[in-house]
Amino acid sequence: MIIQGKLTVYFESPFYRGLFEQNCGDTYRVAKVTFGTQAPTANELLQLVQQRWGKLHWAAGEADALLKVQNGMSPKRRIRQARKEVQRSRKGKATTLLKLEHKQNLKLKKQRRKQLKDQHASEVRLKKQTKRLAKHRGH
Hints:
4 strands
């Protein structure tokens, strides 16, 4: 099984952000990290990978989103491909996957809020009913 990882650091005003992409077997995962207003140094990136790698929030993708690595590819060809990727827009699979996960989280939050609101309303209704019944009970 081939595990392939890629880190793209880019400036999204006003912060520098890092986009981790990982291909492992038939899964594709993405994590996004915000570095700050200054460009991260090599030491900061190394420290991030060593200490916070396990704590990153990974968004999983589909199996067909994978790009297979060719073992027989020459180093010059890899360099050209890397240069092309840098030139291309970063709005690719990773960002669409992160947006999709964000929308799903918003839907879940909305469902939880509605559930809590309904629960609170039913509790208030029960309280009013018991109070009304207690008034008509008599002595």
